[in-house]
Design brief:
about 300 residues, globular
Amino acid sequence: MKDTDLHIQGQAQAADLPGRILVLGQEQGMLGPALVHCLRASGCEVLQEQGEHPGRSVEAWCRELDRLEPDLVINTLGCTDTQKAELEPSTALFWNKELPCALARAVHKLGAGLVSFSSDCVFDGRRQTPYRAEDTPNPVSACGQSFAAGERALLHCGLDNLLIVRSSWLFGPFGPNFVDWVLDQGQQCSCLQVPHDQVGSPTYSLDLALYVLRLIGNGVTGVQHVCNNGQASWCELAAEVLNTCGLNCTIQAVTSGPQLSQHARPIFSVLDPKPSLALGRIKARPWPQALRDYIFTFHSRHIQF
């Protein structure tokens, strides 16, 4: 990861960040490991969790905070599976509202700060211009409703040092994602069917982690949008992946289906990160540039020369 480390070093300095940082979910998904990687590349002290996540109660999570006494808690745990949220709305509420609020209360007692992550699913997708951080959420799915409820509760918990980050369409190392799926299928199939009617903000997990650390270092709080610049449909993102690698596979554009607006992601969920990132003196990379960085750094074996 030498090239990636060079991208990180000098952009998020340990001197600008709290001394003892606890990342919840540091070995799960894409975001937790990406944050830990960026923190360590910046020379920060990352506290180590203990125990297993499945079945851990709210009380157990709070005891973990009392044991470690962090200066900052970055919570990357959450339910982002839209279909699972429809089938198990109580599970989504636990991860996206109940746990973050309990953590906020525990953090408040410690005099520490909290970073919590939300989703573009809090919007209904009924517009064609990027959503800004101050836009009012209007979720249409159980997943979006749980994230919106969590945001509202956190904003009323009385914690001054609170940063809520909305992001979307994550790709990167440390976990399965849409870009990896396209790369794998693009070597096995001559044609891929990909929806053209869903539009969002593709975001490189390492860029997201880096930008969040810059915001923390600059004392930014409140609800912020953090993602790479630009927008794309799933179809356009898939085409860019195949074109970057030179894979001999075509894309067939298809529609998502009538069930999308009720049980999955919003049709249009592009986020505007510029006002938020300006607070951290950050200029976000366009998503195609970030995508090429990811592919050339982590998937060079897929590139056809």
